[in-house]
């Protein structure tokens, strides 16, 4: 239904090459309808209102992964090592989204180096992604503020290149200019394990932002790259918010007051972010935004985080960054925990919860319309919905990008 708005001609990633000759082919997961995820039931009038909202207002996801993963999760590591990640254009069209912050290099692009944040990995992934995007017409890379409303008007999807962390660049800050040149417009300071710029949420010692981190924040402000602190430690988050001359994003997280995981943000971080005009996108990756009330992860627990944060800081500072992907996300987490021995900082001392095979109602990027359905069903006005599905994030884009 929402997909009718987007002009998708059926393009499949890398179809300009020959499978089997130019690259090894993997059987990939179904992009839409892979599992039996719930579509929030609405009356005919309510459903029409949902469709009208997509017609009328700008919609933005502040964090999703657009890659399609292999149907057989045991092939995932080899697929990633080949460094050719397929993009789910069919699912993007079905999402109805005008703008997606496409998270690259979240520790999975291992094409060139076992260090996920090595410069050559990040550059490889960005270049490969843009090469594919530039062979089709549904999506385009957004580089300027004007590209955002343009996507809505033209029935296309604007993709914002969004790195979850700054790569390891040591003191070579000019490489941040290079990333801007490649189209990076939203970038995390660090991933969970921390780096030369800041402590991450997985670090035992929270050293906040380093001296070099302060320089990075200044350079990003000057260049016009929006800053993301989703994986930064609590102290680093506060340091960045204070140091940045522009508002800051938490592109994907939730409220620690509802679930005591380090992946969630404490009230004081969310409040400081909002005081400086920033926006937090509520996250929905499996087993993240759980709550004491909802220990079985679904759209209901995600929306509990949404409502809590709205109460805490007001509706002008909240958005959605579902952090979904195409494929078995839960299996992917298990694969990484096992094969790459990434210890999960997020499960330390957590209360009991029920593991789910997928997040019902928000399984992959194409299920974004369920968020709008939920908001319609729960009595939110058009103005309120317009803010959280697009306007708030767009405000921060306008305040942080150069042009
Ligand atoms: Zn992330």
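Sequence proposed for the structure above (403 residues):
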């Amino acid at each position: 239904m929402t997909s009718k708005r987007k002009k998708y001609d059926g393009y499949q990633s890398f179809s300009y090459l020959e499978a089997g000759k130019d690259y090894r082919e993997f059987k990939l997961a179904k992009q839409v309808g892979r599992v039996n995820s719930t579509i929030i039931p609405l009356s005919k009038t309510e459903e029409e209102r949902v469709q009208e909202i997509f017609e009328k207002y700008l919609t933005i996801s502040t964090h999703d992964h657009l890659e399609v993963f292999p149907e057989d999760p045991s092939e995932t590591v080899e697929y990633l090592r080949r460094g050719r990640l397929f993009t789910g254009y069919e699912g993007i069209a079905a999402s109805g989204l005008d703008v997606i912050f496409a998270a690259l290099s979240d520790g999975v692009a291992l094409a060139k180096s076992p260090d996920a944040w090595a410069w050559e990995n990040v550059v490889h992934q960005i270049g490969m992604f843009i090469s594919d995007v530039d062979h089709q017409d549904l999506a385009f890379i957004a580089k300027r503020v004007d590209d955002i409303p343009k996507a809505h008007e033209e029935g296309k999807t604007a993709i914002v290149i969004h790195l979850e962390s700054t790569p390891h660049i040591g003191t070579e800050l000019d490489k941040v200019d290079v990333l801007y040149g490649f189209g990076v417009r939203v970038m995390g300071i660090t991933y969970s394990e921390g780096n030369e710029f800041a402590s991450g949420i997985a670090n035992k010692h929270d050293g906040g932002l380093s001296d070099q981190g302060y320089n990075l924040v200044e350079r990003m402000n000057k260049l016009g790259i929006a800053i993301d602190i989703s994986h930064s430690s609590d102290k680093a988050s506060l340091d960045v918010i204070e140091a940045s001359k522009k508002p800051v994003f938490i592109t994907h997280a939730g409220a620690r007051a509802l679930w005591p995981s380090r992946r969630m943000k404490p009230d004081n971080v969310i409040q400081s972010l909002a005081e400086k005009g920033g926006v937090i996108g509520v996250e929905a990756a499996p087993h993240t935004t759980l709550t004491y009330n909802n220990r079985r992860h679904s759209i209901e627990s995600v929306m509990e985080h949404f409502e809590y944060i709205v109460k805490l800081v007001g509706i002008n500072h909240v958005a959605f960054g579902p952090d979904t992907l195409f494929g078995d996300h839960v299996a992917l987490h298990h694969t990484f925990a096992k094969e790459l021995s990434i210890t999960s900082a997020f499960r330390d001392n957590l209360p009991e919860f029920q593991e789910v095979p997928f997040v019902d109602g928000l399984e992959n990027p194409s299920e974004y319309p369920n968020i709008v359905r939920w908001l319609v069903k729960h009595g939110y006005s058009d103005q309120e919905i317009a803010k959280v599905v697009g306007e708030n994030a767009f405000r921060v884009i306008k305040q942080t990008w150069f042009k």
